[in-house]
Amino acid sequence: MADINIAVVGAGVVGLTTALELQSQFRNAKVTVIADKFQQDTTSFVAAGLFRPSPSFAGPNQDITRKWINNSYYHWDAIRKIAEAPLVGVTEISGYMFSKVSASVVRNPYLEGLVPLYRSATREEFDLCPGDWKYGSFFTTLLVDCGVYLPWATKKYLSENGQVVRQSVNAFGEFAGKYDVVVNCTGFGAKNLCNDNRLIPIRGQVLKVHAPWLKTFFYGEYDTYVIPSFGDVTLGGCRQYESYNTEPCKYDTLSIRERCESMLPSLKTAPLLGQRVGLRPHRDVVRVEKEILTTERGPLKVVHNYGHGGYGVTTAPGTSKYAVELVREMLMGNSKL
To answer: Residue 224, annotated ligand binder?
Structure first.
């Protein structure tokens, strides 16, 4: 397909991964990324990046949901195996989930059978962290550090003749007549752009500390986690539904440090490097679907790809591949809405 103009709105992990997938699938197309926030200003930059989809993560049905997750894992794992993986920000990591409440807390049906190792923790392993742990799992998964991945993805995208436009988007009608298809990867911005009341923010706050001795991740109760990454360790966290506060909260900072240091006392000596806050774009069903909008300038073909909540880094490749197939259907005139 020649002389195709496709716009991707949004430059977080979902937007950039979608743009790269479009370039891969449509070699002769002109792909333009349009956004008002890039790199460190995106919600993706806040994410710890551990590949761990929640059992509650949901696409339109179970088969598609699992396909998104599996395709994402295989995508990231293929990158992990290449020589430049450290430059992409993808690595393999192992760790523990502990709970005092229920065995179901430490089970993940999406990961069991997908990752190379997933087993119950032993009684001896419970002693790795102070606490009266009753249930635990140990597994090997992947980690994608967006502080590394976003710059790499941008560079790769630009090297393939990708275009970038920095602008705020007030309505998709602005693009009618300019692009053959627009892919909506605006995350929480879709709430206003699409008038989508099913999309809500879940505020998250994390701390970055210097703790190079930690090579293993740990999850505990109350959204408590310690995740080593490229050059720092992420301490978290919180899930505050319908909170729009994008500034660090001193009470959350104290709570995160107290909970993480209770799990791993060695963190008490770890210097604080920084704090990050993001609004996870949560939708009870992640929206990856086609739509033809009626605008003053004529019809506009749109493929939506948003609402990943706290699992945008985990599932970006899978939903992007799915979205690009929807783009192909719209370009072929097979759009059955």
So the answer is: no
